[in-house]
Amino acid sequence: MKIVFATNNQHKLEEIRQILGPEFEILSLNDIGCHDDIPEKGKTLEENARLKAEYVWEHYGSAVVFADDTGLEVEALDGEPGIFSARYAALDGNGSESHDSEANMKKLLRKLEGKDNRRARFRTVIALIESGNKIFFEGIVNGQIAREKSGHEGFGYDPIFIPDGYDKSFAELGADVKNSISHRARAVAKLAEYLKKQKL
After folding, report:
1. pLDDT for 73-82, tens place per residue?
2. pTM of the model
3. Is the preceding omega at residue 81 within 30 degrees of 0, hence cis?
4. CA-based, 20 to 30 A from 19: which of 2, 167, 190, 192?
5. How far is the C-alpha of 5 from the C-alpha of 84, rounded, in Å?
6. Residue numbers annotated as active site
7. Torsion angle of alpha carbons 173, 178, 181, 186, nearest 10°?
């Protein structure tokens, strides 16, 4: 089963391929020759995921395509960084537009200095377009923001996010554990269940 995942993020691609398994052939934007800068101008994760999926479906004629958007939502910061998670530091000129994870983490830890409430959640929304029909799947993992970075695996905010039920960050837990409990894993599990039922 060939499905286009509207991303060129190698970390996400590998994670999704591991979670979905060999019965699905996941193609990246690069695989279908899409090198466009797809606009993400939505005000919610749902809108951004839908916009990316629609763009690929309309311009590249893929029968089945999905896109995701993920945000880290921190309670004490009124849901920041949310839809701006990947370019959080760039918003105030402290990072490049090219997803500077180190700068993003530094900014977040700085904004949480002196705050006891470290509650946060990762939320992933997947928008699937299948023969023109749009379906959404959501995955959430709750946890807290550590006071300092730890671990070297994963990407993004993984070194400072400790999921509920664990005393280690995503970056310390490793890919196998993360891929079984993460926000993306939970959203992808719902996507996979749907695709298998449809026998696309």
Report:
1. 999 999 999 9
2. 0.87
3. yes
4. 167
5. 21
6. 69
7. 170
